[in-house]
Amino acid sequence: MASKPNLIKRIWLVFILGTISATGPLSIDLYLPALPEMTKNLQTQASLVQLSLSACLLGLAVGQLISGPLSDKYGRKKPLMLGFLIFGMVSLLIAASHSVYFLIALRFIQGLAGASGQVLSRAIASDLFSGPLLTKFYAMLSAVNGIFPVISPIIGGYIIKYVEWQGVFILLAIIGFLVTIAIWMGVGETLPLANRITGSPVNSIIEMLKLLKDSKFVKLVLVSGFIYGGLFSYISASSFVFQNYFHMNVANFGFLYAMNGIGIAIGSAVPGLLANRISEISQIRFVLGSTLITAIGLIMSWFFVNNLPIVIFLIFLTVFQFGMLFTLTTAVIMNLSLKNSGGISALLGLAQNAIGGIMSPIVGVMGSQTYLPMALSITICIGISFLLFMTVNHHRSQSER
Fold first, then answer.
1. Closest CA relative to residue 115, chosen from 327, 358, 350, 355
2. Are 320 and 263 in contact (CB under 8 A)?
3. 7-205: CATH number
4. CATH 1.20.1250.20 occupies which residues in the chain?
5. pLDDT (tens digit, 9 = 90+) per residue, 288-337?
6. What is the pLDDT of residues 133-159, one digit of tens each?
7. Angle at CA 337, nearest 5°, toward 331 and 342?
8. Could you tell me the pTM of the whole model?
9. Can you tell me the distance from the alpha carbon of 161 to that of 264, in angstroms, rounded to the nearest whole number?
10. CB-based contact 106:97 (threshold 8 Å)
11. Whose CA is closest to 200, among 113, 110, 73, 346?
């Protein structure tokens, strides 16, 4: 394992890795306020512009399966720098685009490149830390990362207020280039040659796929994936629930959404404070149980109370616990093996994006006139996670590294 950085370097590492792991909200939430203007400017249908969102999400999912295994062979730094350099260049091309179909294609490539930040930030942390130290680092990383979904739509809306939609992608290009320079100058290579996968790049992919033979790994990845499914159930339904069902205005909903985002960030930081006293396994077991109880309470509130303040409280408590579970499950999964951290991180990210993406439209199909479908979806996802987690043998969790 690479030598552990001192306090100052660790703070810098948390900041830079927190930023590069936020390529999802930076690529998606930042340009959401620009969608209506883009539709008008490109003289196209709203559904086609929205397809650019799906293309980026698909790129973010597929890109992890590329950058993760490659980093296990070539190290973390080069794939990360290349990914953000391409991210910046493609962002400039998007700003110059006059065709919605060209936009969709470029957004897919932008997602492919940006995926390197999500997958390799986890892998770099796993190279440097293990056990409770890894949990503490992921807690800090998740707290920094959690800020971006809150501020991205605000920044995007502010940009659109003063400049055209191309300004959003120019900002993304600047971020891509600055992050590339920051990685080049301020992040050392963390994967020693002795821990890299030898042979052709195909070997890295084969080694990643071998992980799917480990039932413990697969179960834990699915646990994390269904937790993300619960989160996306909330995200996809929240605007309909609060604005349509509870008749909340846009400003108040935006404030509430931001507060819940902060709740996730705070929750993400809590496991780091408990890491030396309570094992990650015990924390996950308890928080999964308490989250399931909270989600069932949300269902019961629809039948017996149906009160806005109670719903707001229960949802905040739910997403707060989601934040804790994100940190804990990531730490446990990334602690499983010293080698293949890039491949482990890639499959973890794929499961999270895939299950989250599947649950979003399912909630819509179940209905958007009440919050019951959202509550049911969250409960089902957490219930599956809880049942899967209880079937995992955790006795070897720390010794496997």
1. 350
2. yes
3. 1.20.1250.20
4. 7-205, 214-390
5. 999 999 999 999 999 988 889 999 999 999 999 999 999 999 999 988 87
6. 888 888 888 777 777 777 777 788 788
7. 80
8. 0.83
9. 28
10. yes
11. 73
Quote the longest CA-to-CA distance of the chain.
62
Rounded-to-integer distance, Cα 389 and Cα 288, Å = 9
**Do 318 and 292 form a contact (C-beta atoms < 8 A)?**
no
Question: Encoding tokens for residue 377?
Answer: 């979806």
Evaluate whether 91 touches 143 at the Cβ level (below 8 Å): no
* Cα angle 128, 136, 256; round to 5: 125
* Residue at 29: amino acid letter: D
User: Token pair 């629930």 is at which residue?
Assistant: 241
SS (H, E, C) the chain: CCCCCCHHHHHHHHHHHHHHCCHHHHHHHHHHHHHHHHHHHCCCCHHHHHHHHHHHHHHHHHHHHHHHHHHHHHCCHHHHHHHHHHHHHHHHHHHCCCCHHHHHHHHHHHHHHHHHHHHHHHHHHHHHCCHHHHHHHHHHHHHHHCCHHHHHHHHHHHHHHHCCCHHHHHHHHHHHHHHHHHHHHHCCCCCCHHHCCCCCHHHHHHHHHHHHHCHHHHHHHHHHHHHHHHHHHHHHHHHHHHHHHCCCCHHHHHHHHHHHHHHHHHHHHHHHHHCCCCCHHHHHHHHHHHHHHHHHHHHHHHHHCCCHHHHHHHHHHHHHHHHHHHHHHHHHHHCCCCCCHHHHHHHHHHHHHHHHHHHHHHHHHHCCCCCHHHHHHHHHHHHHHHHHHHCCCCCCCCCCC
Cβ neighbour number for residue 57 with a 10 Å cutoff: 21
User: CB neighbours (10 Å) of residue 133?
Assistant: 16
Residue the block writes with tokens 């991205």 = 152
Evaluate whether 256 touches 246 at the Cβ level (below 8 Å): no
Distance CA 50, CA 369 (A): 22
Query: Ramachandran region of residue 2, left (φ > 0), alpha (ψ -120 to 50) or beta?
Result: beta
Q: How many residues does the chain have?
A: 401
CATH code for the part of the protein at 214-390: 1.20.1250.20
pLDDT at position 398 is: 42
Can you give the C-alpha Rg of the chain in angstroms? 20
How far is C-alpha 190 from the chain's CA centre? 22
